[in-house]
């Protein structure tokens, strides 16, 4: 029987159950082949292998338009969460150095920032994560192929190496976890030739200099945020609103802080063209949709943050019969992560209607592996997923926005408790805390179940993570105020919420 | 059989010298506790890992360098301020690493022939 198993040195027999599995596998090269070695793909493949399945994962990075490429681990590790958070941290240190002086530290002269030092350190860390993932796959007996995968049919995958060498694999089940890539505004002349995206920013060897960030999603805001924080002249161009899909009151606090912090905002503007000047700079022309006039300015870099989309065409999905959403190009999936083809599943950013987050992709991948291995029937719960935006003033939330709650229950059926608070650290540092704010959107009746929690302030993600557990358990406003706070923290202010929006009273927290 | 150069060094200075003399080369370094006159190291994991590592050396890339470095006696290694720990950021012996890259295998990872082979054969 072993003769039918390709890559047999990979499979370690752990008992008779696996012998019978191997008998069934004999028809296919693998039990599961995962296309995409990112957050979802790696979690799914490792879990499946751990459950005794014969697994292979294909990972390949098509270089960006600028030629940037990276190793194993997907968007989060290489061009997303990880480098973003590290650069955000670099920017926070800039503010901390200024604050430190109020706390008694002597800093000789104004602190200056060196991009090369930061980018080298960040890239080094990312590369160590690439290696760590590689070792993990090997250790967990997952076959790793650095190849561009595409579907031949519902059980067959074609892999092509960078050099063009082809391999064919067959699998009982296929999991598509290829994620997405930044979009370019193709209708803007010069956009592709002269602009960069989040795929490139973390890998630049030289400082991006004076930068125009186009787009006010969290990618745009976070990038503009840390660029401003490390001392670069940064402008964000916003077509309509910031943080679409998020609570708009909170989005306003985030952008207000950024404006006060030094990021320039070009509201209601749409880029028209990008031209390279002989001096080397980029001249951007845009239309101010408010004044209806065209404006122009010169930048060293233009960063497009206008959305992300899957590269579905390269995967040959439609030919294999996998139904895609025509508008987004994403794969249509059931709650079981199944596609329109029985043997093919999809997780992570490429699947339609899912939060584009690493933890949800990881959890979905693990649960899918367990279902494929037949050891569980549990489906992924995509509700009540907490998230954070790592802008200079961080924002984190779990549950519904105030708008969503109003729409779902009606304004009269909800009660919003809120507070403007001041982090203790800001006092001595003489920092403005005008945008530090908390709100709990609750049901008005009974124990007042919490529908959504929102927090802007330092370490927002750390604050909300614990409350997300309470939220998951059905926490009510009563539970919240019956929880004794930890003092002195910012998080404790959640347990002290008592002013409602409805009352119209001043929501500023007074001393303890 | 590929052509690689094996260099045997003792101590941190010796190691640095060997590296600086081979700029531009793909350098793999294996760090082990010192061996006594009988050729046995004070580090039991190093004793276990060495045959595994040596068993995979036929997979080393063409024209690469393999530096076999004895770090010192046990008390020197136990000192948290020794140069290997401070500057090279080593955390344990044995360590097998690819110089100038984040690729490394530490302690029990060196017992696994497939991991060693993976380091020697993949980019």
Describe this structure in words.
The complex is a heterodimer of chains A (512) and B (123). Chain A has helices spanning 16-25, 39-50, 74-79, 81-102, 115-139, 191-194, 198-201, 218-229, 248-261, 312-315, 358-372, 402-409, 424-429, 460-472, 477-481, 492-495; strands spanning 30-35, 55-58, 143-145, 148-153, 156-160, 166-176, 181-182, 211-214, 234-238, 264-267, 269-276, 282-288, 293-299, 301-304, 308-309, 344-346, 387-389, 395-399, 414-420, 437-443, 450-456. With 512 residues, chain A is of the alpha/beta class. In chain A, strands 1, 2, 3, 4, 5, 6 and 16 form a seven-stranded mixed beta sheet that branches. A five-stranded antiparallel beta sheet of chain A has the order 17-18-21-20-19, sandwiched between helices. In chain A, strand 17 (387-389) and strand 18 (395-399) form a beta hairpin. In chain A, helix 2 packs parallel to helix 11 (358-372), helix 4 crosses helix 5 (115-139) and helix 4 crosses helix 8 (218-229). With 123 residues, chain B is of the alpha/beta class. Helices cover 33% and strands 20% of the residues of chain B. Chain B is built from five helices and five strands, in the order βαβαβααββα. In chain B, strands 1-3-2-4-5 form a five-stranded mixed beta sheet, with helices on both faces. In chain B, a hairpin with a 5-residue loop joins strand 4 (95-98) and strand 5. In chain B, helix 2 packs across helix 5. Chain B is globular and about 35 Å long. Chain B starts with a strand and ends with a helix. In chain B, 31% of the residues are buried. The mean pLDDT of chain B is 94. Chains A and B meet through helix 5 of A and helix 5 of B.
């Amino acid at each position: 029987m072993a003769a039918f198993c390709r890559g047999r040195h990979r499979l370690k027999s752990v008992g008779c159950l696996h012998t019978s599995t191997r008998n069934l596998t004999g028809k296919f090269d693998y039990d599961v082949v995962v296309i995409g070695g990112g957050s979802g793909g790696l979690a799914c493949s490792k879990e499946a292998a751990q459950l005794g399945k014969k697994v292979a994962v294909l990972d390949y990075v098509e270089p960006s338009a600028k030629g940037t490429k990276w190793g194993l681990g997907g968007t989060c590790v290489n061009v997303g969460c990880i480098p973003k958070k590290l650069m955000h941290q670099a920017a926070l240190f800039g503010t901390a150095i200024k604050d430190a002086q109020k706390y008694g530290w002597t800093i000789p002269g104004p602190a200056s920032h060196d991009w090369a030092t930061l980018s080298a350190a960040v890239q080094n860390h990312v590369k160590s994560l690439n290696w760590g993932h590689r070792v993990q796959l090997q250790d967990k007996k997952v076959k790793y192929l650095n190849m561009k995968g595409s579907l031949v049919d519902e059980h067959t995958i074609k892999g092509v190496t960078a050099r063009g060498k082809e391999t064919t694999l067959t699998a009982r089940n296929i999991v598509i976890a290829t994620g997405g890539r930044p979009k370019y505004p193709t209708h803007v002349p010069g956009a592709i030739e002269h602009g960069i995206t989040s795929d490139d920013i973390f890998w630049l060897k030289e400082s991006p200099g004076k930068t125009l960030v186009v787009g006010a999603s969290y990618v745009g805001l976070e990038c503009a945020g840390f660029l401003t924080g490390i001392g670069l002249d940064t402008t964000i161009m916003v077509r309509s609103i910031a943080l679409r899909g998020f609570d708009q009151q909170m989005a306003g606090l985030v952008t207000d802080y950024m404006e006060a912090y030094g990021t320039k905002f070009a509201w209601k503007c749409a880029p028209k063209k990008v031209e390279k000047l002989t001096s080397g700079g980029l001249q951007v022309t845009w239309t101010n949709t408010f004044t209806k006039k065209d404006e122009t300015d010169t930048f060293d870099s233009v960063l497009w943050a206008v959305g992300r989309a899957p590269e579905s065409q390269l995967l040959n999905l439609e030919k294999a019969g996998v139904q895609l959403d025509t508008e987004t190009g994403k794969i249509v999936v059931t709650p079981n992560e199944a596609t329109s083809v029985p043997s093919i599943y999809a997780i992570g950013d490429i699947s339609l209607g899912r939060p584009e987050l690493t933890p949800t992709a990881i959890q979905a991948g693990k649960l899918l592996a367990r279902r494929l291995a037949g050891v569980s029937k549990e489906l992924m719960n995509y509700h009540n997923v907490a998230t954070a935006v790592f802008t200079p003033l961080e924002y984190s939330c779990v549950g519904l926005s105030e708008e969503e709650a109003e729409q779902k229950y009606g304004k009269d059926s909800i009660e919003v408790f809120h507070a403007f608070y001041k982090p203790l650290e800001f006092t001595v540092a003489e920092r403005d805390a005008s945008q530090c704010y908390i709100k709990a959107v609750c049901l008005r009746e009974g124990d007042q179940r919490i529908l959504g929690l929102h927090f802007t302030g330092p370490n927002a993600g750390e604050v909300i993570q614990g409350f997300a557990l309470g939220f998951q358990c059905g926490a009510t406003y009563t539970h919240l105020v019956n929880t004794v706070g930890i003092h002195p923290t910012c998080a404790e202010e959640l347990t002290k919420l008592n002013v409602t929006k409805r009352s119209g009273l001043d929501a500023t927290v007074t001393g303890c | 059989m590929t052509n690689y150069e094996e260099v045997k060094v003792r101590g941190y200075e010796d190691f640095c010298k060997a590296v600086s003399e081979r700029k531009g080369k793909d350098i793999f370094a294996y760090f082990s506790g010192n061996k006594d006159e009988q050729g046995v190291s004070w580090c039991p994991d190093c004793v276990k890992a060495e045959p595994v590592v040596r068993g995979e050396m036929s997979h080393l890339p063409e024209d690469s360098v393999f530096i076999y470095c004895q770090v010192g006696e046990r008390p020197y290694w136990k000192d948290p301020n020794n140069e290997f720990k401070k500057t090279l950021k080593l955390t344990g012996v044995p360590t097998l690493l690819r110089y100038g890259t984040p690729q490394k295998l530490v302690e029990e990872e060196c017992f696994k022939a497939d991991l060693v082979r993976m380091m020697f054969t993949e980019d």
